[in-house]
Amino acid sequence: MMLPRTLFGRTTLVIALVSFAFQIFTIAIITTFALVPLGRNATNDLAALMIETAENWQGEPAGDRPWLQERIGRLYRIQVQDPPGEVSGFPRMLPYFQLLETALSSRTGGNIVLRASHADDGEEWYWADLPTERGTVRVGFPASRVDVQPWLAMLLILAVGIFVTLNTSAGLASWLIRPLARLASATQRIGQGRRPEPLA
Predict the structure, then answer these.
(1) Which of 90, 159, 165, 189: disulfide with 194, CB 3.0–4.6 Å?
(2) Which domains does the chain have, with CATH numbers?
(3) Percent of the chain beyond pLDDT 90?
(4) Which pTM value belongs to this model?
């Protein structure tokens, strides 16, 4: 790595590195102490709702299940896939899915793995096969229910932070170096036997 040779370049680099380190530290703290606990609470609530839905589904007479399906879809944006259709694995880009699988597994005592399918309108749905006393019920929710993009938010924060940091560090370094440059120029004039310009 080639380090800047000028005092201005080195000062800018130091200020920028400190700012970047603080920015990364801030994001890590927010993620650890705010975003992850919020995500864990949200997935615990959804896991409880999905398990309760599975139990209610098995307890309802077959004639009342369409009413229950309409109600949970309207109020909670979840559905029961009855009969179960074709599902497949999917890439877990969000920690939300791992947290939900952990919450479901903890509440059911089994290993619950989410699967995905696509509805007729093209929207992706995520499903969990939940065990009950009377059998397994597949309960799921649409992707729009968890339509969050934390990585995009992080990238935007970093991009804006880098832009602001570079401009701020360059301006601050210039402000700090300017008096030193005038002092160096004055010292050089004195060394040449000439009268220096006033520094202020």
Answers:
(1) 189
(2) 27-150 (3.30.450.300)
(3) 46
(4) 0.74
